[in-house]
Amino acid sequence: MFTRPLPVVHRLTTQALDALDAAGPTGLRHVETIAKILAGPAAERLAPQVWAGAEEQLAAKTAVYTPSELPAYGTRLVEMLDADGPEPDDEQPPDPVNELTLTRHRDGSGGTLTGRFDDAALSDAIVTLLDAKSAPLTGDDDRPAARRLAEALAEVCG
Questions:
Q1: How many CA atoms does the CB half-sphere of 31 hold within 13 Å?
Q2: 55 and 115: one domain?
Q3: pLDDT tens readout for residues 16-33
Q4: Cβ atoms within 10 Å, residue 38
Q5: pLDDT for 40-49, tens place per residue?
Q6: Which helix (H) or strand (E) holds 150?
Q7: pLDDT for position 89
Q8: Contacts with 16 (C-beta within 8 Å, 6 or more apart), sequence order
Q9: Among 16, 21, 69, 109, which is least packed by CB within 10 angstroms?
């Protein structure tokens, strides 16, 4: 018999464990394990009757599984009972960001370009063009890749 007070929602678990107590070693760790399983997001989506049935099945398995083995069984059981899974997210994904920012240097010597392209096709087109134009001209071309890219962009914009 358990001496620690348990939540009312676990009444079925404690009743089943009391009935199984004579059959094998069950205890408070089993109850705590069942409580953790039934507090998960998938279990919270179960209808009350289904949740109570899961609690009964978990309590019955305490004669078979140790408290450390019970979560694997319990997780499979709850996931099977929650076959629909979580509600779909009805929010629309944010619009893709495709932007290019030019900041001119104050002294008029040039500027800085910063870009972000979430649209994969647009990004691929830009990258493909710049990759082709920024390839080393010869085996002796020792310009850094960043410089070759900058010069390729200037050539394309011509």
A1: 23
A2: no
A3: 556 555 445 567 788 889
A4: 21
A5: 999 988 988 8
A6: helix 145-157
A7: 73
A8: 56, 59, 60, 62
A9: 109
